[in-house]
Amino acid sequence: MKLQGQVAVVTGAGRNIGEDVAKLLSKNGASIAVVDLDRARAEKVTADIIAAGGKAKAFICDVSKEGDIEATTKGVVDAFGRLDILVNNVAISDNKHMLDITTEEWNRTIAITLTAPFLMGKHAAKAMIAAGNGGRIVNVSSTSGYYGRGRAIAYTAAKGGVVNLTRSMAIQLAPHNIRVNSVVPNKIGSPVGKDDFDPTRPVKNLVGRPGVPIDLAQAILFLVSDDSSFIVGADLFVDGGCSTMMPGNE
Ligand SMILES: NC(=O)c1ccc[n+]([C@@H]2O[C@H](COP(=O)([O-])OP(=O)(O)OC[C@H]3O[C@@H](n4cnc5c(N)ncnc54)[C@H](O)[C@@H]3O)[C@@H](O)[C@H]2O)c1
């Protein structure tokens, strides 16, 4: 198994992409810290993993609060004895026009979608460095980090930030043998992208179907395993190829 004996923290693991990531990393031998704000979701995914023969523990954490992040990171090391992998998956979208969004809505979206991956990364990296085993971090970005949108403003700004946060994290953590990369999803059939997802509309990508959470989980497994040991600071598009097409030029 690719991740035998390793410990992985997955944020927003209570459903959808994070849930599939947690379960796939567990199937590959990792012990999973199931991090989510929603206790019922976190405990359900944890129970599922344990029922399937894996090791997992639920951590109830609001990633917009640094105190929660510090307590969670310490709790993971106390519970499992180490921390090897971090998947920064939580985000919220504002779904707002810039003329309507309040400063409070802007700040909350930035805090959860951009500042949280930085703070989770900072505290996890300190634990990885203290253990001396290196590590791997994957930040979940979005095609909304590469292109503007009519129906979101703070989310697109935050996801653009995640793309370049990943590059600086990769540079700054490379001396500690911690590899940092990002994945770039588009229209996965789950709530963050739901406003954009109309199942009656033809899917415009090169695969001809909408993405599903396991598509992301498989890409993330690759990035946290030694199969990708020469890949650092990269953005792996998991979007069915839609970003390769210029609208109107298909
Ligand atoms: N779904 C898509 O179509 C799509 C497209 C592009 C990018 N993405 C990205 O993929 C990631 C996962 O998306 P998803 O649709 O699976 O998400 P989701 O909304 O279905 O699940 C997110 C989980 O995060 C938890 N959460 C929310 N706020 C939290 C907080 N403050 N602290 C801790 N946990 C919190 C929720 O309880 C939930 O269980 C996000 O980064 C998203 O931006 C998704």
| CATH architecture descriptor name | 3-Layer(aba) Sandwich
Helix content: 40-55%
Radius of gyration: 17 Å
Number of domains: 1
Stretches with pLDDT under 50, minimum 5 residues: none
Number of helices: 6
Tell me the strand percentage band.
15-25%
At the first level of CATH, the class is Alpha Beta
Structural class: alpha/beta
Oligomer designation:
single chain
Bound molecules: nicotinamide-adenine-dinucleotide
Number of strands: 7
Secondary-structure element order, N to C: EHEHEHEHEHEHE
In a few lines, what is going on in this structure?
This protein is an alpha/beta fold.
Account of the 3D structure:
The chain has 250 residues and is of the alpha/beta class. The protein has one domain (7-238): 3-Layer(aba) Sandwich (Rossmann fold). It has six helices and seven strands, in the order βαβαβαβαβαβαβ. A seven-stranded parallel sheet has the order 3-2-1-4-5-6-7, sandwiched between helices. Helix 2 links the parallel strand 2 (31-36) and strand 3. Helix 4 (103-131) packs parallel to helix 5 (154-173). The longest helix is centred in the middle third of the chain and has 29 residues, at 103-131. It is globular. The model has no long low-confidence stretch (mean pLDDT 95). It binds nicotinamide-adenine-dinucleotide. Nicotinamide-adenine-dinucleotide binds at residues 12, 14-18, 36-38, 41, 61-64, 89-92, 112, 140, 142, 185-188, 190-193.
